[in-house]
Structures
1.
Amino acid sequence: MAEQSTIARSVLEEAGTTLASEAGIRMGDKPAALWQMLVLVNLLSAPISARIAMDAARELNTAGGTTPRGMAELTWQDRVDALGRGHYVRYDESTATRLGECAEQVQQDHRGDLRRLAADHERSELLSGLKGFSGVGPTGASIFCREAQAVWPWLRPFTDELTRKGAGRVGLPRDEAELGRLVPGDSMAAFASGLTHVARDGELADRVLERAG
């Protein structure tokens, strides 16, 4: 276990940056932050680079889409223009429509607060509710939960297939509960995110193992 803990610490040090942090989202147990995470997940769901999705999320926030109401008050063209400034092309028009629909849905069904999706602290209910938003499938719902565990302790530890693939790549257990025991609870989101980076990048995996000694 000591060796695994060392590898886990190395993952955090080399790659433990959450998507929210990279996108400039100040994660918190607050409606605005959770909405911004849902927007990012929606943007990531298209076959486009994560970097472009993050840039587009920043542009939408700058334009005023930081809350469901703010996004709904943007015109469709405002959203298209913001996506364009983030170089989110090819999918800008359909995504602009989808984000408007999501904003209306959050306002109407959840009174603007995505915490209502998880009021009973049921993981299956949360995942199901997230998949009820246009453009959010199983992968997107899992990404949201992976990030939201930073502010929802009841959700920890949360891992998805990509997280577990990364764990296996550096010799860590693929079992969710075992992974959760390797780091403090408030580091679990960063740890899970780091493992997804490791899963995608063989050179990063090698650096993690080299650092761990």
2.
Amino acid sequence: MRIRKALTSALIAALVLTGCMSANSASTAASSLTSPTWMSNATVYEVNTRQYTAAGTFNAFSTHLDRLKKLGVKVLWFMPIQPISVKNRKGTLGSYYSIADYKGINPEYGNAADFKALVNKAHGMGFKIVLDWVANHTGWDNAWVTQHPDWYTKDAQGNITWPPGTDWTDVADLNYGNSAMRAAMIDSMKYWVDTYDIDGFRCDVAGGVPNDFWNTATATLTAIKPLWMLAESNPSEVTIGTNFTSAYNWPLKDTFNGMGRGTTDAFNISGEISRIANDYSKGNYPMNFITNHDENSWSGTEYTRLGSVGAVKAGAVISFTLPGAPLLYTGQEVGMNKMLAFFEKDQVDYPATPSAMTAFYTKLVELKTKNAALAVGAAAGSIAEVASTKTDVTTYVRTAAKAKVLVAVNLSGKSTSVKITWGKNAGSYYDYATNKKVSVAASQTVTLPAYGYKIYTTNVLTNK
């Protein structure tokens, strides 16, 4: 949802106090929700159907599946595809997150047959499909508003209101004190699994919906088939391992932004590594990202926020090699440096010739896919930091059995020479930059250019 930070700390505290939201840390929760095995080495790709092509339809997007297959991504997360409310809408086309009909298809994108054909084609090519789900609120002309006004939150005068603490005046806040509404919501989610065979949900404003609802919904849905359940929330707002497998890694994104300000160093990355370990129970993990639809439209492109192409590449290397499932957003893979309008048509500009960023991301996706040390879920590899002589260089090792990935990233905008103590990880590896076999010593001095990185891996890669 746009401007997620508009959920104020006061509102979150109120939800906790009223029992509508659990603040339990995932590290203390018993893990029972199993991450699908197909997520173990997957890169997630967020699809903005409206802006993806000139037509902005499922059929037009379908022509890009071959390109995305070559990129190597496995999970296609579609922003909401339901009809968008007209009443109180913002802009010309309205917010994707103002849902007029939970079981409908936005006619701007096509029809039910078009979406079914797209899912079937994608499944046949090995992709998994995740649908964005908006459980916190509906559009104002959703039939529920007139048929079931008691399903909504009301102000002191008895009027249905938008989510408190936000400027989301184009949506009506749902009342989770109503059991009939909860049942209808779960029925609507189940519809998409049963009818279209989707493989998971990215749950919008998940922390604003009571945890006991998500417990019931997730148990019901995952009884049908294994699903990836991603919360747009901090892990403390939901119960990782019970109702969600994963949550947003906003702190890591903020750490990346710090590179553009010159405030991020190895201690910050060390803190992120510790936080991930503390926030996620065994078998669960965050979704790491540099950008997404909210960041791009409201905070600026990754190039603006991080300050340079070099910083973006450094952040991407970390995003793909720290524990977690990495995300690529529509246009990110071609180096799009444009803020897409949120409420209007604003097509992605695809370059006429291949982008250097496409080759960059294709190789990172291959590393993530092929090296078991970078796996998530039950097969997750371990992570250990190693010593270096510079505080502006982060150095760590990912390991799973005999598979290893050694990583060193310069977090600063200045070239630096650094001594790294790889210790027991010394041995024969492939240099990620050249794909050539090299010997890595227990103690090694390397020179890293501004925002440069060095990766050694136990598997050779096909992309150069």
